[in-house]
Amino acid sequence: MATATPARPIKGRVNELTVLLTVVGYLLVAGTFGGWFPYPNITESGVDLLGHAIAAVNTLATICLVAGWYWIRNGEVDKHRKAMGSAFALILVFLVLYLPKVGGGGQKAIADAAPDLVALAYFIMLAIHILLSGLAMPVVVYALLLGLSHTPSELRDTRHAQVGRIAAASWILSLVLGVVTYVILNHTYGNTFEPAFVTVL
């Protein structure tokens, strides 16, 4: 069975690179919400368009993750590797869309007209989505770097399988809840628009 050549320079630095990439990711998100970075001014219609694109990207990423999980359980390592790599690439696309949307455009809030129970469910799902997104980042990066830097036989002597299960489960749940909250916000009960505090460029 042919497999991709692992990235050997990463092999001895998985822990350090995991920490570095996780910190960079957290700083990008925190800096965007904190107004530390300049973004182009994005109109409300632009925010709508980016929101639709993000939902599509997250749906595709979820499909890739579920397929990758299915394939590794059936011993199809190459397909698993490609699916998980594609899911990670899609998450990078998500960041490219999401950060300017928030930093240069703004965010939406569920409309006051939504029933109390719906609003409560929405906020609970949104909170879990945000929490899992943050918690999943280091385990996703760690599992990915192990997969890139080790051969399938070498991975058996690492924590890739155990960490990968946690990463995939938390990642899938986060993405699904993100798409559900998107549907509630954009296609069910309506929303209000909150412009970004700082828009530059």
UniProtKB/TrEMBL annotation:
The organism's place on the tree of life at top rank = Archaea
**Membrane as a keyword?**
yes
Which residue spans traverse the membrane?
A: 17-37, 49-71, 83-100, 120-145, 166-185
- Supply the Pfam families for this chain: DUF420
Q: Which InterPro entries does this UniProt record tie to the protein? A: DUF420
For whether the record's keyword set contains Calcium, the answer is no
Sorted UniProt keywords: Membrane, Transmembrane, Transmembrane helix
Protein name, per record: DUF420 domain-containing protein
